[in-house]
Amino acid sequence: MQTRHLLRTALLGFALGAAAPFAALAADPPLKVGLLEDISGDLAFMGMPKLHGSQLAVEEINKSGGIMGRQIELIHLDPQGDNARYQEFARRLLNRDKVDVLIGGITSASREAVRPIVDRTTTPYFYTNQYEGGVCDASMISMGAVPEQQFSTLIPWMVEKFGKKVYVIAADYNFGQISAEWNRKLMKDLGGEVVGEEFIPLGVSQFAQTIQNIQKAKPDWLLTINVGAAQDSFFEQAAAANLNLPMGSSIKVMLGFEHKRFKPPALNNMHATANWFEEIDTPEAEAFKKRWKAKFPDEMYINDMGYNAYNTLYMYKTLVEKAKSTKLEDLRKVIATGDACIDAPEGKVCIDPKSQHTSHRMRLISVGPKHEVKVEKDYGTIQPYWLGEIGCDLTKKNDKDQYTPSHLPKKS
Amino acid sequence: MSAEVFSVFYQFADVFAFLILSAAGLAIVFGMMGVINMAHGEFIMCGAYVTVGLVNLGVPLPIAQIAAAITAGLIGVVVEYLIVRRFYKRPLDSLLATWGLSLIVTQSMLLIVGSSVRGIGTPEGSFAIGAYTFSSYRLVLFAAAVAVLVGLYIVFMKTRFGVIARATMQNAAMARALGARTGRIYAISFGIGAGLAGLCGALYAPTMTLIPTMGATFVVESFVTVVIGGANVLLGTAPAALLLAAIRMTLNASYGQIIGQIGMLVAVILIIRVLPEGLSSVLVRRGR
Q1: How far apart (Å, rounded) are the C-alpha atoms in residues B185 and B196?
Q2: Which UniProt keywords apply (chain B) (predicted)?
Q3: Of A12, A255, A396, B112, which is most buried, counting CB atoms within 10 Å of its CB?
């Protein structure tokens, strides 16, 4: 057999990756919004609502007269979960299409891939996901929740309710690593103990050993910051093995809608803090959901990323109309006044001038045995305060860096 | 103590089952027939989706799984007839053709079925030994993996079809001269390979998230198992899976999943360096 030769050829096949399909481009008119969201590949199920949220907002804004009378032209490219393609498409949108604003990115890895490219331009970039926090960069405006809004609420609550011993399963890339670091810091402050930490390579789908490691460590609860469809198989396998531990997360339920994708009771006893989840039933939220479902009746779940993506276009509209300009420096002058706010379906949200991150109304939710979602605690509006406290002040200095509890700005 | 011993066996059985079930189909298609089937993961995905679809229609899980494996097998026969057949003498082109097929299938599934399908849940049943609790279904997977190996042994070593199939793979022209209908043999063999891939998807469907690209989580493991196993399905794939499962299980248990995965791939590199023809080259030579 020519196995060796065949192997080489097979590996070559993997290495080649997929060739990039090119989306159609429209002619030049109005305000150009460049959007990078995965609608194929492993994260398509999360990325699809982000595209839909953006499309819904663009349609609504265009119908009501656009931004300063200019219509929005949405140019969406699908990077298929590939960071190299994120960079290629970001360059294309920024340099060739000359978009007025760039929006998007799912994983923190994709955001960090795109950010240096954006930094070389004068185009504003909106990142619309919740994430591990810490990016202090004048070109980037973050619209999702960050650890001081998600972990500083969730972890003390879990410790109080379930106990001081936690086991962490996290995806092995910057998001999982930095989130785990946040957990270590908060657990230390609370006098708790991290009895185990396991980082899982993306794409791993088998967890029998992990489940046993957890049982050996005997934690009181689990912090699950595993990412992607393959790693989500953990929940099904843990339920089948009757692991039965309380779980907390910053990305489950409202983001990955695991409670809709898995058969109950796989997600039983999951907890998360969120600025949005589809089960919010305020009149504003109901009206928003109704508009969404009218346009996209087949949506499995309106997740927080999709919701943030929707808000982002309204925030951009507000900034541009207040600044009477689309230039980044003019938009940042509006942000610096502290008056960059919109009335979102969750309530009023504002951009913090120092960090350019967004305030959010945070609620702690839990999932029951039939996968019903309940609000356990309402924290009201929480500011994204951490970056400002450690010395990031974008009104004075552009650090272009990402800080973590172990990587703080140098005192000057 | 007995809990620890059982736990080691259980973890080993779990990794072994995963490697055997994901590699069995490929062992025939790639190991025996020499077709680099880049669409292997898509046959697995097909098995999983058919299973979930049938269960949602009210079909009992085991019947749905068998039906899914048969469906994947029949699709395999069609694919062989329409596409693969044209590339037996051009392995590089077969790589491109099946890869293209794989891209078309995943994207079509995404467009037709959507980005995610609700899971059906693992069959109830868990048991406890000492401080550990285990899912009973995982033992079903192990039993299925052993059954697949036994089944392959019987089909390829003990039946007339098996003899003709092995003769065809070894020397198609000679087999044809002796009256074997090699075209049909190729089609059936490819169909069996595809059916086994479908079976793998069907068996793992209840335990996983269903997305169109789910086959990809199996593909690397299946290729490395087959490659280090070599051309002989029984004397190659099975020992390869035993060896890799032992390495991966030990490292997973002591150092976590990252080291487990790295360790397995390093082992693969070393084995191919030392034994370019795979494990079966040694085992078969010994046997003679």
Answers
A1: 16
A2: Amino-acid transport, Cell membrane, Membrane, Transmembrane, Transmembrane helix, Transport
A3: A255
Closest CA to A33 of A77, A64, A69: A77
Are the Cβ atoms of B231 and A1 closer than 8 angstroms? Answer: yes
Strand partners of residue A362: A380
Contact between B44 and B172 under an 8 Å Cβ cutoff? The reply is no
- Residues 282-301 of chain A with CB under 8 A from chain B are 298, 300
For residue A144 the two structure tokens come to 């999702």
Q: How far apart are CA A180 and CA A226, in angstroms?
A: 11
Cα(A275)–Cα(A358) distance, integer angstroms:
11
Report the CATH number at residue B249: 1.10.3470
Mutate to test the interface with A, among B211, B214, B233 (most CBs of A within 10 A): B211
- Comparing A13-17, A87-91, B79-83, which segment has the lowest mean pLDDT? A13-17
CB contact under 8 A, A4 and B110: no
Distance from CA of A261 to the nearest CA of B (A): 4
Joined tokens for residue A70: 């200019």
| Residue B117 domain-assigned (yes or no) | yes
What pLDDT, in 10s, does the model give residues A141-199? 999 999 999 999 999 999 999 999 999 999 999 999 999 999 999 999 999 999 999 99
Domains held by chain B: number = 1
Position B285 in a domain: no
Cβ(A401)–Cβ(A136) below 8 Å: yes
Q: Say which range, A11-20, A220-229, A263-272, has the weakest mean pLDDT.
A: A11-20
| Structural domain that includes position B68 | 2-279
Distance from A230 to chain B by nearest Cα, in Å? 6
DSSP single-letter state for residue A409: P
ipTM (interface pTM): 0.89
| B251 → chain A, closest CA residue | A209
Q: Where are the alpha helices (DSSP H) in A122-227?
A: 147-162, 174-189, 208-217
Query: What share of chain A in percent tops pLDDT 90?
Result: 89
Q: Is A292 exposed, middle or buried (0-12, 13-18, 19+ CB in 10 A)?
A: buried
Distance from CA of B258 to the nearest CA of A (A): 6
In degrees and rounded to multiples of 5, residue A274 shows phi and psi of: -140, 150
Q: Which residues contact A388 (CB under 8 A, 6 or more apart)?
A: A352, A354, A355
Which of the residues in chain B have pLDDT under 50?
none
Q: Where do we find the tokens 């356990």?
A: A376
A41 touches chain B (CB under 8 A): yes
> Among residues A263, A292, A309, A317, which one has the least CA distance to residue A30?
A317
Q: How far is B287 from chain A (nearest CA, A)?
A: 18
The rounded distance, in Å, linking the Cα atoms of B4 and B187 is: 46
Tell whether B170 is covered by a domain.
Answer: yes
Whether A370 and chain B come into contact, CB under 8 Å, resolves to no
Whole-number Å distance between alpha carbons of A117 and A138? 13
Would you call A236 and B258 a contact, using CB atoms and an 8 Å cutoff? no
Retrieve residue A263's tokens. Answer: 């058969």
Query: Measured between alpha carbons, how far is residue A160 from residues A68, A156, A164, A187 in Å?
Result: 50, 6, 8, 11
Nearest CA in chain A to B125: A240
- Test B209 with A6 for CB contact under 8 angstroms: no
Contact A97, A32 (CB under 8 A): yes
Q: Under a CB-based contact definition with an 8 Å cutoff, are residues A364 and A375 in contact?
A: yes
B128, part of any domain: yes
Binary contact (B207, A240; C-beta < 8 A): yes
Q: Which residue of A has its CA nearest to B127?
A: A241
Domains and CATH numbers, chain A: 31-145+281-361+382-396 (3.40.50.2300), 148-274 (3.40.50.2300)
Residue type, B221: E
Name the token pair of B64.
């749905």
